[in-house]
From TrEMBL:
Species lineage: Bacteria, Pseudomonadati, Pseudomonadota, Gammaproteobacteria, Kangiellales
Record Gene3D superfamilies: 1.20.120.1760
Protein name: CDP-diacylglycerol--serine O-phosphatidyltransferase
InterPro entries membership: CDP-alcohol_PTase-I, CDP-diaglyc--ser_O-PTrfase, CDP-OH_P_trans, CDP-OH_PTrfase_TM_dom, CDP_ALCOHOL_P_TRANSF_CS
Keywords assigned by UniProt, alphabetized: Lipid biosynthesis, Lipid metabolism, Membrane, Phospholipid biosynthesis, Phospholipid metabolism, Transferase, Transmembrane, Transmembrane helix
Catalytic activity: a CDP-1,2-diacyl-sn-glycerol + L-serine = a 1,2-diacyl-sn-glycero-3-phospho-L-serine + CMP + H(+)
Record-level GO cellular component terms: endomembrane system; membrane
GO terms under biological process: phospholipid biosynthetic process
Superkingdom of origin: Bacteria
Family membership noted in the UniProt record: Belongs to the CDP-alcohol phosphatidyltransferase class-I family.
């Protein structure tokens, strides 16, 4: 009986975090379907809902100690749909259908950028600096495109005459994901620590601005975050070079240290 139970536990998957991942995947798929039917505002909102689900599933897995290799792989597959395929197709259906080959190629570059970004993240997750992301995270890139579509839908913009510039933005967002620009992961923030009273007022003001005009605030906010990567990298280029030189020096020292067999001989 004990053997059967252990085998059942191995074959099973954790319900709660994977349920949240599935909800995010559903939101991404719904965004594609909604854009095909011309409901672009609903499509953009669905991508932001997928972002919320993506943020919750990992935290829930850590809180309940239900992390698993299956959950990590499933989350990556869901992210590819929700933050790679869905935003590119939504923005393509919204603004890029009339500019020909350049439109779908820009959307394709975005999809490739998201796929490469996720693959690089998965392979470097154990060794990367936790305080920074290398390249723009795919949810942030998706938020830029979804925010633009949401703003345009809310204010009833005629997007197709601006298709070339929107394609350029899509192209840049895709390239930023595979760039070497460093973006803050905000993991250095002590969320359990104390903050000044004025900090609480700032947080309240942020929520008020989002409530007043969600699409504009979210689009501007994530666009500024995307710009912060190149600015922060160029600002700290000297420190980054020194850090790389230190790592190379430490690696050389480690390789030049004698092994146990060499010492014995």
């Amino acid at each position: 009986m004990k053997v059967k139970k252990s085998l059942a536990n191995r074959r099973g998957i954790y319900l709660l975090p994977n349920l949240l991942t599935t909800a995010g995947l559903f939101a991404g798929f719904y965004a594609v379907v909604a854009s095909m039917q011309g409901h672009f505002e609903n499509a953009a909102i669905a991508i932001f809902i997928a972002m919320i689900m993506d943020g919750l599933d990992g935290r829930m897995a850590r809180m309940t100690n239900t992390q698993s290799d299956f959950g990590a792989e499933y989350d990556s597959m869901a992210d590819m749909v929700s933050f790679g395929i869905a935003p590119s197709l939504v923005v393509y259906n919204w603004a890029l259908t009339d500019i020909g080959k350049f439109g779908w190629l820009a959307a394709f570059v975005y999809v490739v950028g998201a796929a490469l970004r996720l693959a690089r993240f998965n392979t470097q997750v154990a060794t990367a600096d936790k305080n920074y992301f290398q390249g723009l995270a795919s949810p942030s890139a998706a938020a830029i495109l979804a925010g633009l579509v949401w703003v345009g839908s809310k204010y009833q913009w005629e997007a197709k005459p601006w298709g070339f510039y929107i394609a350029l933005l899509t192209l840049v967002a895709g390239l930023l994901m595979v760039s070497n620009f460093r973006y803050s992961s905000f993991k250095e923030v002590d969320w359990k620590g104390k903050i000044p009273f004025i900090g609480v007022l700032v947080i309240v003001l942020v929520f008020i601005f989002i409530a007043i005009d969600p699409p504009t605030v979210l689009f501007v906010g994530f666009t500024l975050y995307a710009l912060s990567g190149p600015v922060m990298t160029l600002w700290r280029i000297k420190d980054i070079k020194e850090e790389r030189q230190r790592k190379k020096a430490l690696k050389k020292e480690a390789m030049s240290e004698p092994t146990i067999d060499e010492v014995d001989n």
